[in-house]
From TrEMBL:
Topological type in the membrane: Single-pass type I membrane protein
Source organism, top-level taxon: Eukaryota
Span of domain Integrin beta subunit tail: 640-729
Primary location: membrane
InterPro entries per record: EGF_extracell, EGF_integrin_1, EGF_integrin_2, Integrin_bsu, Integrin_bsu_cyt_dom, Integrin_bsu_tail, Integrin_bsu_tail_dom_sf, Integrin_bsu_VWA
Disulfide cysteine pairs (residue numbers): C36-C46, C39-C76, C49-C65, C206-C212, C260-C300, C434-C692, C462-C466, C477-C489, C486-C525, C491-C500, C502-C516, C531-C536, C533-C568, C538-C553, C555-C560, C574-C579, C576-C607, C581-C590, C592-C599, C613-C618, C615-C661, C620-C630, C633-C636, C640-C649, C646-C724, C665-C700
Name of the featured protein: Integrin beta
Residues covered by the Integrin beta subunit VWA domain: 35-464
Length: 799
């Protein structure tokens, strides 16, 4: 029985595998591709058969496009199945150096990302993957630009910033030997209502006799320099200004700092922008209050180091700033007072590679803030890519420090990276379709805040190689009505048919339809197809594995006899409604196996010498013996003991085979009954039945029957409750023991009390007796002395 089950499972598995393969192939067939180029765009599993004589009668040209494995099964010798590829064209190793080394490298000589250039060839649906390595270089140059709000509320802050240059230069020397610093300031747009435009206020916007400079939008005070003293000198000359409203025009200043690379002096190194303020900010749309409606153009407008178009262009939007900061690899540090922390925290969430630090009321902690923010920014690497062509997608997988891995959104970044650490990313690029034109395109992948990037040239497989060898106006295509390429005709405009033999205007006619009827039949293409150009083109069924074929579509591969609900029993193929059986199988549905190995018993005899082998199945002649090889005897001694452990584990989850129950005890059907009287009786069955009574490790009995039905199914009926001997009644025993202890204690107390009473009475009687016998002496005690002393006065004369 077990051997038969295994054979059935193997047959089902083979049929299921074939079905799944055809399900995949259905993607290719349903696309109805008319050329090799169209076929390979459908899916990466699709191939195009270029054999000229591949198609049988009635099959359409699109049948050449199918799953590659299925095309091979159909004996296609030449299959066009181009594959994508990845080629690294520049692969310079990442730089290994340190700050104390003797060799000082220029910024452009330092490499932190590898590889640098790739050429990727994409086929639709087939992803191409490559590895990217990033290593934080030691002693990497840094440019830092300090952008400060010089509105009146920042007066005390300016005093503390005047010595920032040399102090910050000294601290940054611990991080890099190549550090430059610059300074810029901002106030507000120089129009109402942001500032007062009265002549006096334009000269000195401050009140209370404060000496302030004229208002301005943004001023580049000092371009990036390695001279800290120069920074201190120029900053010391700066004066506070003023404006009317609380939000400042800092976004105008940030935009100019980002886009005016030459005037600021940015190098292709780590770029830091410190934005220091104690107020909020204006953004796109706020310019309307001053009559400014033109959107910010994102271009440099510095004249004599002053922003000259603040009155002309509106403030930039946050998205515009994000784009420009990213394009110019600038990392922003917002040094703001505690009051505006929540506002700038939200802004930080919108600007990648930015940080927020709490500025003290007088900016005394600005150096520590900058150092902490830089360490935070530099310890994180986030990859971004340029705009992708239509239909192209990219995915990332990160391999970070300490075995940490990231996928999806977290696949772009690694955190807690120290100087000298190396991390890697696996990047996968996939195209879902061939872009219009199919021309190569270049995309870039780079870590945010760094100037280095990976350039990836994307090439697209839009057509097959065999198409290049196509023969225009080929005689094979009905006198030159098409291009013969990849084994088939690609018809010219207005022509159709496998060989371009028909014009679209002459598709149907009575003469042509006559060629599509079987002799003595009125059905066109057997009602299973359409007559095109005098040739039957068979219908396609919903299941692409089912195919009509033949000159008149009279054949199919799905209407053959079945066995076990499988076409041709799973042991043959259906051709024109007849089963072509595999070797060792016969019958109309290939249901009869000629292999007698399944009938061999353990003793080497066919059917254990008690039956005949017919179609690979034993027909037992002795009614006592059953099973696939006539070796099972349910009524023979030893049946109960043999199946005890399996019945116990399946019915009660216990026994010696408890751990291996699923594996070793699934060979019978288990039916539970409530009581022994519900078990089947031998007189109720038309096949032998054995009643069993077995005891488990807890001395509990369980009852079951074992039988093999006529269809060779093993059945076990088992009583669902164990018959266990009743145990002692604990409560009376405990109560009796407690009562006994109490009674014994009371008895002992009574005996002790009784003995004490007897003893006391004896002692009292003895006392009374001695009292009666006592004799008292009335004589005077010789040692007795009276307490009274009589003294006679000698002078007393008795008178």
């Amino acid at each position: 029985m077990m051997d038969l089950r295994l054979l059935l499972i193997a047959a089902l598995s083979a049929a299921l595998s074939g079905s799944l393969a055809q399900q995949d192939g259905s993607i290719c067939i349903k696309a109805n591709a008319q050329s090799c180029g169209e076929c390979i765009q459908v899916s990466e599993i699709c191939g195009w058969c270029t054999d000229e004589k591949f198609l049988s009668e009635g099959e359409s040209k699109s049948a050449r496009c199918d799953d590659v494995t299925y095309l091979k099964k159909k004996d296609c010798k030449n299959i066009e199945d181009p594959r994508g590829s990845t080629e690294i064209t520049q692969n310079k190793d990442v730089t290994v150096r340190n700050k104390d080394g003797n060799v000082k490298l220029k910024p452009e000589e330092i490499t932190q990302i590898q590889p640098q250039k790739l050429k990727v060839t994409l086929r639709s649906g087939e992803p191409q993957t490559f590895d990217l390595k990033f290593k934080r270089a030691e002693d990497y140059p840094i440019d830092l630009y300090y952008l400060m709000d010089l509105s009146f509320s920042m007066k005390d802050d300016l005093e503390n910033v005047k010595n920032l240059g040399t102090d910050l230069m000294r601290e940054m020397r611990e991080i890099t030997s190549d550090f430059r610093i610059g300074f810029g300031s901002f106030v507000e747009k120089t129009v109402m209502p942001y500032i007062s435009t009265t002549p006096a206020r334009l000269i000195n916007p401050c009140s209370n006799n404060e000496n302030c400079t004229s208002p301005f939008s943004y001023k580049n005070v000092l371009k990036l320099t390695s001279n800290g003293d120069r920074f201190n000198q120029l900053v010391s000359q700066q004066q506070i200004s003023g404006n009317l409203d609380s939000p400042e025009g800092g976004f105008d200043a940030i935009m100019q700092v980002a886009v005016c690379e030459e005037q600021i002096g940015w190098r292709n190194v780590t770029r830091l922008l410190v934005f220091s303020t104690d107020a909020g900010f204006h953004f796109a749309g706020d310019g309307k209050l001053g009559g400014i409606v033109l959107p910010n153009d994102g271009k440099c407008h510095l004249e004599n180091n002053v922003y000259s178009m603040s009155h002309y262009y509106d403030y930039p939007s946050i998205a515009h700033l994000v784009q420009k900061l990213s394009d110019h690899n600038i990392q922003t540090i917002f040094a703001v007072t505690e009051e505006f922390q929540p506002v700038y925290q939200e802004l930080k969430n919108l600007i990648p590679k930015s940080a927020v630090g709490t500025l003290s009321s007088n900016s005394s902690n600005v150096i520590k803030l900058i150092i902490d923010a830089y360490n935070s920014l530099s310890s994180e690497v986030i990859l971004e890519n340029s705009k992708l062509p239509e239909g192209v997608s990219i995915s990332y997988k990160a391999f970070c420090k300490n075995g940490v891995r990231g996928t999806e959104d977290n696949g772009r970044k690694c955190t807690n990276i120290s100087i000298g650490d190396e991390v890697s990313f696996k990047i996968s690029i996939e195209s879902q379709k061939c872009p219009s034109g199919g021309k190569p395109e270049v995309i870039t992948v780079k870590p945010l805040g760094f100037n280095e990037e990976v350039a990836i040239e994307l090439n697209f497989i839009c057509d097959c190689e065999c198409a290049k060898k196509g023969e225009p106006n080929s005689p094979k295509c009905h006198g030159g009505n098409g291009i013969f390429e990849c084994g088939a005709c690609k018809c010219n405009e207005g022509r159709i048919g496998r060989e371009c033999e028909c014009s679209k205007d002459e598709v149907r006619s009575d003469d042509l339809d006559a060629n599509c009827r079987k002799p003595n039949s009125t059905d066109i293409c057997s009602n299973n197809g359409e007559c095109l150009c005098g040739t039957c083109e068979c219908k396609k069924r919903e299941n692409p594995a089912e195919v009509y074929s033949g000159k008149y579509c009279e054949c199919d591969n799905f209407n053959c006899d079945r066995s076990g609900n499988l076409l041709c029993g799973g042991h043959g193929r259906c051709e024109c409604r007849k089963c072509i059986c595999d070797t060792n199988y016969t019958g109309n549905a290939c249901e009869c196996s000629l292999d007698e190995s399944t009938c061999l018993a353990k003793n080497g005899q066919l059917c254990n010498g008690r039956g005949k082998c017919e179609c690979g199945i034993c027909k037992c002649e002795d009614p006592k013996f059953q099973g696939p090889t006539c070796e099972v005897c349910p009524t023979c001694p030893g049946v109960c003991t043999e199946h005890k452990d399996c019945v116990q584990c399946r019915a009660f989850g216990d026994g010696e085979k408890k751990e291996m129950c699923q594996k070793e005890c699934s060979y019978f059907n288990l039916i539970k009954v409530k009581d022994r009287k519900d078990l089947p009786q031998p007189t109720d069955q038309s096949f032998p039945l054995t009643h069993c009574k077995e005891k488990d490790a807890n001395d509990c009995w369980f009852y079951y029957t074992y039988a093999i039905t006529k269809n060779s199914t093993k059945e076990v009926f088992v009583v669902e409750k164990l018959d266990c001997p009743s145990g002692p009644d604990i409560i009376p025993i405990v109560a009796g023991v407690v009562a006994g202890i109490v009674l014994i204690g009371l008895a002992l107390l009574l005996i002790w009390k009784l003995l004490m009473i007897i003893h006391d009475r004896r002692e009292f009687a003895k006392f009374e007796k001695e009292k009666m016998n006592a004799k008292w002496d009335t004589g005077e005690n010789p040692i007795y002395k009276s307490a009274v002393t009589t003294v006679i006065n000698p002078k007393y004369e008795g008178k």
